[in-house]
Amino acid sequence: MNGCRFCKNQPLAELASLEEHLTLPTSDISIAKQAINEANLDHLVICPAYHAPLRHQQPILPVEVRVKMLELIASENDKINLSTIEIEQQKTCYTYNTLLKIREQFPSVELKVILGTDQFEKLTRWKHCEELASICQFLVFARHSHQLSPPSITNLSYQLMNNELIDCSSTEIRNRIKNNQSIEEMIPDIAYPTFKKFLSN
Which residue from 23, 54, 68, 86 has the highest number of Cβ atoms inside 10 Å of its Cβ? Predict the structure, then answer.
C-alpha cells in the first residue's frame, strides 16, 4: 500500500472523484480536509485511477506525473495518504473491487468513499453499485447548490457533507489547458512546479 497507514477501526476514505481527474484541483484538497474534520476520519486515502471507468478520453497527464503531484500533496497532511493500488494494475479498475482488496488487508477498517453529488446521483451506472453500497458509506460533497436526488440503491448509506462551494473542477482545468490558459491558481502550490515542468518538456 506504499506507506499508507491503517489501524484497528480506522475509517478509510477514497476520493472517488480522483478517478476521473487529470490532477487534483485545489477545490478537492479543500473537500478532503473538510471531510477529515466533519466525518472525523483518522486517515484519508487518495486512490488515483489508471483510467476512470466512466470517462472516455485518456488522461492528459501521464501516470508518473499524476502520482508525483499527488505524493507532494499528500506529504503536506499527516492524515492524507496515497495508494497506487489501481495505477499498479495498469487497467480500468472499479471502486468495489479496490475496496475488497483493501478490506482483505485490513478487515477491521470502516470503509467510506468520498464523491461529489454529480457522481453520487449517477451511482447506479457504477459497476457493482449494489455490492459497493453494501460495504461502505458515501461521504457526499456538493459542487453546486442544488437539491440532492439520491440514487435508488438497496441499503444505501450516505452522509451529505456541509462543505463550502468552490467553483473549480478538473473539467475546467482540462479546458484551460486545451486553450493555453493559466491554471496556476487551480492546482495546489506544492504540485504546480511538477505540472509546469511537464508542460515545458
Answer: 23
Of residues 125, 102, 121, the one with CA closest to residue 13: 102
C-alpha cell at 195: 505540472
Please say whether the dihedral angle defined by the alpha carbons of residues 4, 8, 13 and 14, taken in this order, is positive or negative: positive
Which distant-in-sequence residues (6+ apart) come within 8 Å of 175 by Cβ? none
* pLDDT tens profile 97-152: 988 988 887 777 788 888 888 889 989 999 999 999 999 999 888 766 667 888 99
Q: Give CA–CA dist 21/49, Å, rounded.
A: 9
Could you count the other beta carbons within 10 Å of the beta carbon of residue 90?
A: 10
The CATH code belonging to domain 11-200 is 3.40.50.620
> What is the torsional sign of CA 101, 105, 111, 114?
negative
C-alpha cell at 143: 459542487
Q: Tell me the domain boundaries of the chain.
A: 11-200
The Cα 167–Cα 12 span in angstroms is 26
Q: What distances in angstroms separate CA 97 from CA 101, 102, 132, one per listed residue?
A: 6, 9, 9
CA 3, CA 102: separation in Å to the nearest integer?
13
Phi, psi of 196 (to 5 degrees): -65, -40
Q: Give the CA distances from residue 174 to residues 27, 56, 145, 170, in Å, rounded to whole numbers and listed in that order.
A: 15, 14, 23, 6
Grid cell of 109 as nine digits: 477498517
